[in-house]
Amino acid sequence: MKEPIRSLFGQYKQKGISIDTNILLLWFVGTVNRERISRFNRTEKFLPADYDSLVQILSYFDKIVTTPNILTEVNSLANQLGEPERSRCLSVFAEGVDRLNEFYLESKEVVKTDKFTKFGLTDCGIINVARDKYLVLTDDLKLAHYLQKIAINFNNSPLWMEVKWAIAPYLSYNMREIK
After folding, report:
1. pTM value > 0.85
2. Residue 13: which residues within 8 A CB-CB, separation 6 or more?
3. pLDDT-flagged residues of the chain (< 50)
4. For residue 98, what are the β-bridge partners?
């Protein structure tokens, strides 16, 4: 399993990685308070070690890709944090946005995506942005299956549900080799 991940990451190192809403939220919440990750209802399925793995993953790629829809969802979810973490998370969000490559897609075009009624605006935006360009990192199994079906590379192995972070065991072990 480690060789396919290394190969996949190598393929997209310079192209970039698109991260879905929950993963981006994990990044911001963990940056504010690693211990809050398991106690916030929107990130409770993750562990502080997942955050550590995510930081490693994101540092590997030359480009982190997002859309305004993802950022809006993350902003709304972060607003559910209690103070003072909410304000700190939004400050981290404001700083983090500077590191992201944001791609705007007109909603009137995104809604024309095949399967829009199944996936909605944000996921269809990911599908459109990533197609033939970026690796997608998601914890959304339904989206991952569809990405596989239409041949968009993603990382959400069957281990995700058991391990919660599909590539963490392989990446932390092999990060020195990948670089």
Report:
1. no
2. 60, 61, 62
3. 1, 155-179
4. none
Q: Tokens at residue 145, please? A: 């299956």
Q: For residues 164 and 161, give the distance between their C-alpha atoms in angstroms, rounded to a whole number.
A: 5
φ and ψ at 128, to 5 degrees?
-70, -40
Which CATH topology does 2-174 take? Rossmann fold (3.40.50)
**Amino acid occupying residue 65:** V
The pLDDT score that the predictor gives to residue 1 is 38
Half-sphere exposure of 110 (CA within 13 A, CB side): 21
> What's the pLDDT at 170?
31
- Widest CA span in the chain: 44
C-alpha distance from residue 70 to each of 51, 110, 144 (Å): 18, 13, 16
CA distance 47 to 10: 26
Q: How high is the pLDDT of residue 139? A: 83
**Strand, coil or helix: what is 125?**
helix
Q: What is the DSSP letter of 37?
A: G
- The pLDDT of residue 167 is 34
Distance of CA 97 to the CA centre of its chain: 14
